[in-house]
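Lab meeting notes turned into a lecture example. A postdoc, R.K., suggested we walk through two folding results consecutively so the class can see how the record format repeats. The first protein's sequence and structure tokens come next.
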Amino acid sequence: VPPDMPQPRTPFEDSRAQPSGVSGVMQANVTMRVPAERRVQATERLRQLALDVRGESLSGQDITQEFSDLSARLRNLEAAETRLMAIMEGAATTIDVLAVYRELVTIREQLEIIRGQKQYLEQSAKMSLISVELLASAGAQTGRGRVHTSCTSPR
């Protein structure tokens, strides 16, 4: 990565290159994650580095509905957990306590899963994924490429 490109600062930012050659054409696919607010700067810099940009595309994913659904499920499960704790306080028999305990374990597992999904969406929304396909003719020193940028936007 050139020194003036946005440099990775967190574990969520990375880049991968996979060189390959087919029919005498060398190519490499490079994928990098950059902070969403630096996506435009990064793609501009990639364009400046390219000798020939053959194509470019931008795609995005709106996760508002998914995030809202997870938030609602989280609130409902937290309310159920609170109600089950109150029931546990009033349980008179060991059988009742064990039954409520099993339900609490299930609810808490679901809570952890949903919290993890929300955290993943929040982190993904902060990053943009940039994929670059680099192509070179056999024996030529010139490169040609295609840039694809993918963004996820929250709320």
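The second example is placed directly after the first for contrast:
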Amino acid sequence: PPPPPPPLFQAEDGIRDIHCSLVGSEMCIRDRSLIVAFIGVLSALMALQLERGKEYAVLRALGLTRGQIAGLISGESLLMGLLAACVAIPTGVLMAWVLIESVQRRAFGWTMPFNVDGVLLLQTLLVGLLAAGLAAIYPAWRSAHRDPAPQLRED
């Protein structure tokens, strides 16, 4: 392979130490990402509940139980989380590869091996599904316990 391009600036030991300490703060970044994902899914589900309230009322009038309505909403949430993970995980792996192979080499003049840990990717998927499932609890409960009569009377 061709030699790496010259760094934009000379990486000294102090800069390398700062970079390593920033990379070590991944736990904080992951926690914040989880909170943002949770709030995003919760907001989407609340908007969906407002938009589909009449549909849920019709389903209740047709005989679906409260548990079935809650299960429907929970299933939608988990499916949304799974689809998001199917897009986010490959995108994240690609971005990590670009950062390690190109940006880090040019900015700091050194690189590190790129390894994809399947266990970590599975853990990421499961945590995302957990966040989607937890975000579904309140909208599912709220939709399941609403009285369908007022919603059926509307327009």
